[in-house]
Amino acid sequence: MNKTQKEPTNSVHARRAIAYVVLVILSFLCLFWFAILFVNATRSHGELTKGFTLIPSTHLPENWSGLIHGTLPVLNGLINSVVVAGSAAILCTYFSTMTAYAIHAYDFKLKKFFFTFILAIMMIPAQVTSLGFLQLIQKMKLEDNLIPLILPAIAAPVTFFYMKQYMDSTLSLSLVEAARIDGAGEFKIFNNIVLPLMKPAIAVQAIFTFVSSWNNYFIPALILHKDKMKTLPVLIAQLRSADFLKFDMGQVYMMIAFSIFPVIVVYLILSRYIVAGVALGGVKE
Amino acid sequence: MGKKKSKVVQYNRWGYIFMIPFLVTYLIFQLIPLITTVYNSFFENYRSGLKQIGPNFIGFQNYATIFGNPDLWKYFGNTMIMWIAGFIPQIFFSLLLGAWFTDTSLRLKGQRFWKTVIYLPNLIMASAFAMLFFTLFGDSGPINSMLTSMGIVSAPIKFLSQTGTARGLVAFMNFIMWFGNTTILLMAGMMGIDPSLFEAAQVDGATATQVFWKITLPLLRPILVYTMITSLIGGLQMFDVPQILTNGTGDPARNTMTLIMYLNKHLFSKNFGLAGALSVFLFIVTGILSLIVFKITVRKEK
Fold it and tell me: Which of A46, A284, B154, B210 has its CA 20 to 30 A from that of B37?
């Protein structure tokens, strides 16, 4: 369609070249750190103190076994992190879909009020209520417990809003009507008809919830004190505050890699959907 | 008809039932904590050595203490400086990349690859990323050994002991972690602009730069405002990166100490009165900013 007009070819070529150069530089700035991380996780403490190189060494297995047999309970941390992030992702997506469905499919008096209310509280950060949250958890005797990191995920305004928008554009109520005529109950309709139709949105939000819960540091650091209950970010902070020079640097890099690479692998497999999901959502903070 | 209506009403009861899990969870884990946080801000309640002081009702005394302390304004300033220093390159490169990716005459190849790469840092655990930077930018870390062996600097740069470089690292990490996300959001906005406007401009002989300044930018304004304010709210919550990078000290000379790190300090030392007052202050600031986002979101909804 551009053929009708004479293209200013030279300037387009120049702009394209600049664009590629900038993209390469920015990509380098995004990836370089992780490349060093990977290389350094394969090198021994002795090699690391000698200086820097980009050639991987052979000490990956040693660093790995040194780390899991070391003083930091990293395997416990991994299990705790998987339990917290996995449960939060399931609860958050299931109940956010349910809440969105309540607003989307039914007409009730307080519907508009609830919707406005949820939008209004969407941006309030967890940190500003953390004092009250901490006291509540202490009163409930739930310190050193993973429950206070999981259950609050049920009320997630951002996920709710994404689900509501997705329903507005895809979920037709005629299917629901048809199921009602067939005599299906409302709860059954939600579980057997609405949830499967929402699968693409649920998958995207499950990933986001999993990742943000996996990365969460502020609240877990306030609640988890026993080493065995700590999640990976809290263990990383512990590593940082320990007497650093005593540590085997190969193991330190291994620990960081251990926290970062699972997310990178999952991301590379699912990146298509994730990037599309960001564009669709528009409300990821 | 009457029968059908009553059935509809019966169905609609389920609207409330399906709202229950959200409302109950919100009430317990967010609303009650919010109320007790505000309540705490009116009480003197801290530990002095082994002695517990309070809780005694002292009205607005905690607010007077916290606003009267120059530390609050210093940390507020630190937070803003590091946010702005990260946000300027973030918005600049996001606009640039967004304009390039959506420019049909450029036809950039491998868009999915680039987007995948630039979004990646957003998903990285901020605390682990900060730990990584702490090791990489240490006085004898890989970056310094690289810079000295390449002859760029003669002596290692003490990145974490100088205000400029320490703040710079925090801002740089924020930039790297967020520009991919912003690019994708802005692109979605740019693709929503009526293509006939671009064609008309092209017919009139406008250059790419003119198109960007005269068409793309003005039409993108609502999304830009949205991006800026959500980023500002995120900036006020800045914690993980400077906390891990400086081990909670906010050094050098507490010049990288942010507001949430300050809050975290009060929470750990169990000074609940001051923590409460600080929380309420942060709540009001983010509340006002949220209100603006809310207005934009509601307009977008319509």
Answer: A284
